Task: structure prediction
Amino acid sequence: MSEQEERQESPDELYQQRLRKLNALREQGLDPFEVERFERTVTAAQATDEARFSAQENQSVSFAGRLVARRNMGKAAFAHLADESGRVQIYVRLNDVGEASYERFKELTDLGDFLGIKGYIFRTKTGEISIHVQELTVLAKALRVPPFGKLDAEGQVHNALAD
Result:
């Protein structure tokens, strides 16, 4: 189901869908609420810093953030994760993370979930500095749909007209 279709359902229906996804994760032995610690090596601002790119390119990094956007494209997907310093684009490919992990990302994560990723920094064909994901962990499941508006890394909503 797309994020646009998701918004047309009642808040209770959306909560129930997200709860089913949480239960599916638990059935796979992956309870996101049992993850106690995820060590990150960069923030979004550090990962996307143009001045540091040449030193960081192809370097292994770990990053944790809230899923704020996603574009699925068959066997690959681009998404944006946000932390307290900003947003970073991630690239998730089936062949790199494995079928089970990719399907979890595609089918069992929603906007607002917290994800931990490990991968390396690269520049896309369009020139955007991104993280190519090699490992993906669901750190926390958002059971409530983020409200409309601009969602920052702490989950606070900002009305685009007020900002």
Summary: The radius of gyration is 16 Å. The CA atoms of residues 72 and 156 lie 25 Å apart. The first strand starts at residue 60 and ends at 72.
